[in-house]
């Protein structure tokens, strides 16, 4: 899987910024560079499906119940993301297309 070893930097509209490294076909490591979670990092276990032409579909569930689904296009350096999480007892749904830079291997 060509995504393994790749690194990207993702910047959201709210100023949060992350570096993400794809460690294996089922592991990624994120590091928060800016925003509310700056300085934090973690390892997630996504399901990664190669869609072809350097495009990948990723989906994972975080420990706090947050679900993240992404379409990552390395060739065009684009990311489309749908996230759900619980806030004050309500399920929140967020669709985003943050800026992404492919840092390479």
Automatic annotation (TrEMBL):
<dbReference type="Pfam" id="PF22036">
    <property type="entry name" value="MoaF_like"/>
</dbReference>
<protein>
    <recommendedName>
        <fullName>MoaF-like domain-containing protein</fullName>
    </recommendedName>
</protein>
<dbReference type="InterPro" id="IPR012674">
    <property type="entry name" value="Calycin"/>
</dbReference>
<feature type="domain" description="MoaF-like">
    <location>
        <begin position="4"/>
        <end position="88"/>
    </location>
</feature>
<dbReference type="InterPro" id="IPR053892">
    <property type="entry name" value="MoaF-like"/>
</dbReference>
């Amino acid at each position: 899987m060509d995504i393994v070893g790749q690194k990207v930097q993702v910047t959201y509209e709210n100023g949060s910024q992350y570096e993400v490294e794809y460690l294996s076909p089922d592991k990624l490591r994120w590091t928060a560079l800016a925003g509310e979670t700056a300085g934090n990092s973690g390892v997630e276990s996504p399901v990664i499906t190669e869609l072809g032409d350097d495009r990948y579909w990723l989906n994972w569930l975080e420990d706090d119940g947050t679900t993240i689904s992404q379409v990552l296009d390395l060739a065009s350096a684009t990311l489309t993301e749908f996230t759900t999480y619980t806030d004050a007892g309500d399920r929140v749904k967020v669709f985003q297309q943050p800026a992404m830079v492919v840092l390479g291997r």
